Amino acid sequence: MRAVAFLALKDLRLLLRDRAAAFFTFVFPLAIALFFGYVFSGTSSEPLHVAAFVEQASPAAAMLMKALDEDGGFKVAVIDSRDAGEQLVRRGDAVALLVVPSTYAEGLDGVFSGGGAKLGLVVDPSRRAEGAMLVGKIHEVAFRTVFAAIGDPAQFARVLDRMEESLKASDLSFTDRLAIRTALSRARTMSAKGADSSSTTKTQSIADWKPVTVEIAELSMRPGVPANSFAISFMQGIAWALFGAVLSFGSGIAEERQRGTLVRLLVSPMSPNQILMGKALACFVTCLVTEWMLICFGVFLFRVEVSSWPLMVAVTLVTAFGFSGIMMLLAAGFRTQGGAQGAGRAVLLVLAMIGGGTVPIVFMPPFLRIASNLSPFKWAVMAAEGATWRSWGMSEMLIPLAVLAAIGVFGLTVGTALVRRSI
Amino acid sequence: MICARDIRKSFGPIHAVDGVTFEVNAGEIFGLLGPNGAGKSTAIALCTGQIAPDSGSIDIGDAGSPRAARARALIGLAPQQIALYDELTARENLIFLARVHGMPNPPHRADELLDMVGLLPRARDRVGTFSGGMQRRLNLAAALVHNPTAIFLDEPTAGVDPQSRTAILDVVIRLAAEGRAVIYTTHYMEEAQRICSRVAIMDRGRVLAIGTVPELVATHGGESVVTVDSVAGQHCVRTREPLREIERALAEGGATAVRIEQPDLEMVFLTLTGRRLRD
Asked: Which of A25, A264, A324, B135 could form a cystine bridge with A280, CB 3.0-4.6 A?
């Protein structure tokens, strides 16, 4: 067994020394995951797509929506329900869902008297930066709308009424109350006269004051719905990681044969079975390492959520086993390195593409989804999705894991027998 | 140490090895010579257990068939093709092979062998950067990582410079002196003549002749050519007793110069295998 481990270690070292092979095994899948993740999440210089749900229509809410829409930085889609809005965010069609609560208009009335308007914002956790930008924009727009509202004499009169009521209830000294009441009286007079020159000065002097409070909530993951686009793209990346590993090691036997080292190994005390097991072990380890590399990247940097860690461990082990079997079948089929790599690329590329490597399975048209059943990559991606956003239990996971295990057993037994015959 | 008895191996209608028998003792360098396609490489593949014979038997010391793991531990093979990992360093190649063979302290063994073949200063360089001669020397070292007692060297000096060739031949002589049995194939007759204790000449899967170099020359080398230059002109005589012919020429008088062309292993080889090109 030690000899098998040494053989596997040697193959891993050779893989790392081959820059192209190492790139396609370790870096390319990550690049694919990031590329598709960003593509699906719609990051661009275009206006931010925001879903907005207004709980209760009011002139103030309408004014906010209009102001947001007129601001070049936003593209607002007003939707009917909070659920529909969250769905848009999950799918990556919107950066965030702005919730305008029914108390918004009332809150604006108390904007200078200890109350204030509140807005809710549900953001995609993977797009926090855009979320933060959005909050700033909302403050800016809200500021303008509040002062626009104040510009309306009737609205401003209501604001002043609320402030005077608050003043009565306060425990301020007589002198302070008198001073404030005088100021409110002057403000009422100025508003009635349509005072405009002084408002600019006032606006600037209270630049730090925020007329609305934005309460931010990160979108929680729901079973069966990906929390963000990276939850899909990192599972896609697993398909490419497996592709790279199988291709690298599938030509390993042919490479040993061509460089003459197979003869040396065959003359060593290792049995042919041990030599093949060494190859399979190297492929198994590489599959596992690349799978976990992607999972860790996804979880720690892109908020991909794993619904069950034990299932994820099982998925990665069985997937690595299954693809080690595929590697052995590839090794059995071709006597030359060029043959194994050429045919491997042609066959595996198609299987990876229809198996969710390019178009995610969830977005596939029905006929392609049926065809993808033929691809082992589909079962690997499905199983990985099952342990993440699909939140599958053991019973749902059974079929993909059984398929992958069966592929592994078939590939390793048949492939090993065929390779043994050829060496 | 290495004993092949009436081994036969066919690939379809081709009899690659057809009833070959030989024995190589400890401390002996046994040359296996023959034109391309003679069956030398197949014979080595059979003796190293890479393939099984159709009939006949091969024993490696007391360990029996070379296909048994115990016997394989005694076999060291330097294949004709450089069989090394280009992407690994010289040291990493030897350490890996030493580990596969279960040798204690592989790094130390690797350094020993690198020193033996004069590659210790380049131990940490990748094999892909080595010259042909350096790769050949490392290929030989790789065959010796597990201290084998039956060593098979398949054209170990093919395409190397005179310095590397001399280094390789010195190592081979040293291995035999340490009591190992060495089977050595080559196309360089002068090499075989220089280092081999005994030689077998193969063609078309059969051993045509076997013996020490002087024995083979005496039996198959043909006659010596004695050339006598005299005032009367040049006179060539083919004879099995050149000294007697020289004595006779000197006794007759008038000889100004005498040259002897004695048969060598190359002559034996060509006599036995013919001069027709083999492609």
From this structure: A324
Interface test with B, best of A4, A13, A263 (most B CBs within 10 A): A263
Tell me whether residues B77 and A263 touch, CB distance under 8 A.
Answer: yes
Residues of B in contact with A265 (CB under 8 A): 100
Handedness of CA A129, A132, A136, A137 (dihedral sign): positive
The rounded distance, in Å, linking the Cα atoms of A423 and A4 is 18
Q: Minimal Cα–Cα distance from A222 to chain B, Å? A: 48
Interface of B with A (CB under 8 A): 48-50, 69, 72-73, 75, 77, 79, 81-88, 92, 96-97, 99-102, 126, 142, 146
A138 CB burial (10 A radius; 0-12, 13-18, 19+): buried
* Residue A13, amino acid: R
Give the Å distances, CA to CA, from A130 to A218, A233, A306, A388: 13, 19, 24, 24
Question: Mutate which of B47, B74, B81, B85 to disrupt the A interface (most A C-beta within 10 Å)?
Answer: B85
User: Is A422 touching B (CB cutoff 8 A)?
Assistant: no
Are the CB atoms for A71 and A52 separated by under 8 Å?
no
List, in sequence order, the alpha helices (H) in A152-228: 153-169, 174-193, 197-205
What's the helix, strand, coil split of chain A in %, to 5? Answer: 70, 10, 20
Residue B83 and residue A261 in contact, taking contact as beta carbons nearer than 8 Å: yes
CB B194 within 8 A of CB B242: no
Cβ–Cβ < 8 Å for B21, B207: yes
Task: Tell if the CB–CB gap between B97 and A264 is shorter than 8 Å.
Answer: yes
For chain B of 279 residues, list the mean pLDDT of each consecutive stretch of 10: 93 92 94 90 92 94 88 92 93 95 93 94 94 93 94 91 90 94 91 92 91 88 85 84 86 85 86 73
Domain boundaries, chain A: 2-40+227-422, 43-218
Whether chain B has a CB inside 8 Å of the CB on A271: the answer is: yes
**Beta bridge partners of residue B151, listed in sequence order:** B76, B182
From CA A332, how far away is CA A329, in angstroms rounded?
5
pLDDT tens per residue across span B116-163: 999 999 999 999 999 999 999 999 999 999 999 999 999 999 888 888
Please state, in angstroms and rounded to a whole number, the distance separating the CA atoms of residues A99 and A77: 12
Q: Which residue has the tokens 């048949």?
A: A414
Point out the residue among B72, B87, B126 whose CB comes nearest to the CB of A267.
Answer: B72
Distance from C-alpha of A127 to C-alpha of A96, rounded to nearest angstrom: 9
> Distance between CA A114 and CA B107 in Å, rounded?
78
What value of ipTM does the predicted structure carry?
Answer: 0.82
User: Yes or no: is domain A43-218 CATH 3.40.1710.10?
Assistant: yes
Task: Give B252's contacts (C-beta < 8 A, 6+ positions apart).
Answer: none
A261 touches B: beta carbon within 8 Å: yes
Map tokens 């690049």 to a residue.
A31
Mean pLDDT to the nearest integer, A325-341: 86
H runs (alpha helix) in A45-92: 59-70, 82-90
Both tokens of B156, joined, read 């170990």
Contact A273/B at CB under 8 A:
no
The amino acid present at B110, given as its one-letter code, is A
What is d(CA B59, CA B3) in angstroms, rounded to the nearest whole number? 5
- Tell me which amino acid residue A285 is: V
| Cβ contacts of A166 within 8 Å, gap of 6 or more | A110, A113, A114
Instruction: Classify each residue of B202-238 as buried b or exposed e, where b means 16 or more C-beta atoms within 10 Å of its C-beta.
Output: bbbbebbbbbebeebbeebbeebbbebeeeeeeeeee
Q: Do B83 and A264 touch (CB under 8 A)?
A: yes
- Could A260 and B85 be called an inter-chain contact, meaning their C-beta atoms sit closer than 8 Å? no
